[in-house]
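subagent[fold] <- orchestrator: predict structure for attached chain, return tokens only, no commentary.
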Amino acid sequence: MAYIINLTNGTQLAAVEDGTIDQSTTIKLVGKNYAGYGEIQNENFVHLLENFSSANSPANPLSGQIWFDSSSKKLKFYDGTKFRTTGGAEVATTQPVGLTTGDFWWDSGNNQLYAFNDDGGFVLIGPQSIGDTVSAMVTAQVRDTNFTNRTIIKGTVEDGVVFIVSNSEFTIDQSDPANVITGFDVIRQGLTLRNTTSGTNGVTASAHRFHGTATNAEALGGVAAANFVQNTPGQESSFGDIVRFSDAGYTVGAANDLAIYIDPANTGDEGVIENTVGKKIRFKVKSTGGVTTEPFHIAAEGLIPTATTTYDIGSSSYKFRNMYATTFNGLATNATNLQVGSNYRTGDVNPTNNTVAVRDSSGNLSANIFNGVSTSARYADLAEKYTTGEDFPVGTIMAVCVHDDHETDLANPADVVVGVVSDKPAYLMNAEADGQALALKGRVPVRVIGPVVKGSSIFVAQDGIGSVDGDGDLVGIALESNNNSAEKLVECVLKV
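subagent[fold] -> orchestrator:
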């Protein structure tokens, strides 16, 4: 009968027939009555004693079988899939597979030990350095300028110190080259980055940086946090209160285009908005429809709307109290006063003093006295337009001249008087003609030289001037006395 061979768990491994040898496992299984079975049995025992010592793994292994790998000098066991090292680490240049939690792998390429964890990955045990350079947190001592040794931790990557951690602040002694750490002079309490020297005021001169979110900082760009805009120092800035700047103010734009400051040239309390580069300051708002519009801008020539007859100043509901200007050019729908000279007058239908005459409901215009050019006037003259060689002053006595280019000139004793240059004629004939208005009749001021007594006759003296003693044509009768011997204007009744 055949031998039935079972595994330790009771599972049948093989059935060995009489007189045969079963080679389904690493050792040979001998059947009943097999000739020469002794040699085979003895070799099986020897193989078990040496744990199948060989550079090659045993053929047909069983789960739990032990093999001594003579090439690596490692004792290994078969897990049902592969032979695994017992009591040491897997050695390979690449990550091995088939390990269980806690197994070790020695990375022979980088000379590092790893442990296999529950997540199916490897955890570096050490050393942290890879290859020929140092990349690790290195504890060291360095001497300060007081010749005191200070303990630090150097964050080192490829032999270069990237940062230093220290429990105190000190300055490295630079006199000994062996004591020098490249990129460091003053070591701050805490963590100091490479190339953050005392001369840079806390600003790292190279590309070494902290990358990530920081909950706080004492400075930004070398400027202390207290120097930045804050509504309450040391607190989050929500600017619920006034934000204050110095009188120097602040600027907006890459070229400091817009400046806002207090002008020190005056009283020191005058705010200034200055466009330092451009020619305009533009004002933009949202319309009721949400469209951005620009009602006006400020330029060198003044306050300018961006469109004609489009925008208003004030409204029917919200009016400015007063608007002052030297000149108003445009259409006014209403006015309270009208400027007359340097004074302002209201309108009135009655002949009221210091008012502007306005037609009444019947279309009549009322006034006590009308001074000006009119068909009817009090205390004035009848005049007519004549051309003159030049404009002569009021009161000049004029006569017909022989010149072809004008009609009248200064009167002299041999001339026949035409009239006297008038100021405000009551009635002006040929009003649309060229020339000056010459009074022909009525009362008018006359240029007279020498003393005058009221009622005296005034005669042509010379060059358009009259006198009591003149020997020329009669001009008029004096209506007033004047003892001044120099030339002056004397009101006369014309007799020309």
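orchestrator: received. Logging for downstream: The first helix runs from residue 37 to 49. The helical segments are 37-49.
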